[in-house]
Amino acid sequence: MKVRILGCSGGIGGRHLRTTSMLVDHDILIDAGTGVADLSLAELAMIDHVFITHSHLDHIASLPLMIDSIADMRDKPLTVYATDSTLEIIKNHIFNWAIWPDFTEIPSRDKPVMQYQPIRLGQKTVLGGRSITALPAEHTVPAVGYHLDSGNGSFVFTGDTTVNEAFWPVINKITNLRFLIIETAFSNREKRLAAMSKHLCPSMLADELAKLMREAEIFITHLKPGQIELTMSEIDECVGDFKPKMLQNNQVFEF
């Protein structure tokens, strides 16, 4: 499997800042933040599956525009995977004809451009020998992370989360873990805001990584613009032994 990072920022503000999205091989998206907009029409048209971690705008912003842009280029529905709770939010507040057309009815209900596929926590979806499993996350709305497994190696993305006791026992059972992508949105000076908004700051990240019992390359995502250098410096002080690196746009992982 190959994962290309399309966006990994906690905000916008320049060509290097795109919000969360990852392209898996050529046909799967994990989240659909603003980074998706950098793909060409041909690349967008090749995407058949979109796995959403949660309903916040920075993780779904490009989904409505993408569907509209490639609607006449597809001969089968694009499938959007998420938990029932997340799908319900997206149906009610995005694809509702008020904010955006309901593409599960376009051009007809019998042959729509888009379809929904509910998933459950711990459920494995296998697509062409690639497995994608929803992982526990703790956020202000219903949320999950994802475990991608090629058979040869595993890539884990926490999604947006705060302290999460249910996550680590699952991760510690992954024998072929290669990469762990974990969020840290705020600096330590904003720990109260991190806790309120159910994100992590470096001191909280340190406590979480102490629960990791597997070897893995660790990458930090969802850093807030304007606090990137400060937060990464604090991460180095708090969890330097783990040698975490900042996730970068267009970074590619193969496993």
* Count of distinct structural domains: 1
The CATH superfamily title: Ribonuclease Z/Hydroxyacylglutathione hydrolase-like
CATH class, named Alpha Beta
Shape: globular
Ranges with pLDDT <50 over ≥5 residues? none
Order of helical and strand elements: EEEHEHHEHEEEEEHEHHEHEE
- Fraction of residues in β-strands: 25-35%
- Compute the separation of the termini in Å: 6 Å
User: What is the count of β-strands?
Assistant: 14
Describe the largest sheet: 7 strands, mixed
CATH topology (level 3) name:
Metallo-beta-lactamase, Chain A
> Rounded to an integer, what's the Rg over CA atoms?
18 Å
In order across it, which strands form the biggest sheet?
Answer: 6-5-4-3-2-1-14
What CATH architecture would you give? 4-Layer Sandwich
Q: Could you report the average pLDDT, rounded to the nearest whole number?
A: 97
Question: How many H/I helices?
Answer: 8
Keywords:
single chain; 255 residues; alpha/beta; Metallo-beta-lactamase, Chain A; seven-stranded mixed beta sheet; 8 helices; globular
What do these coordinates show?
The chain has a single domain (2-254), classed as Metallo-beta-lactamase, Chain A (4-Layer Sandwich). 23% of the residues lie in helices and 26% in strands. The chain has 8 helices and 14 strands. It has helices spanning 41-45, 57-60, 62-70, 84-93, 167-171, 191-196, 202-209, 228-239; strands at residues 2-7, 21-24, 28-32, 49-51, 78-82, 114-118, 124-127, 130-136, 144-149, 154-157, 177-183, 217-221, 245-246, 252-254. Strands 6-5-4-3-2-1-14 form a 7-stranded mixed β-sheet. A 7-stranded mixed β-sheet has the order 7-8-9-10-11-12-13. The relative contact order is 0.14. The mean pLDDT is 97.
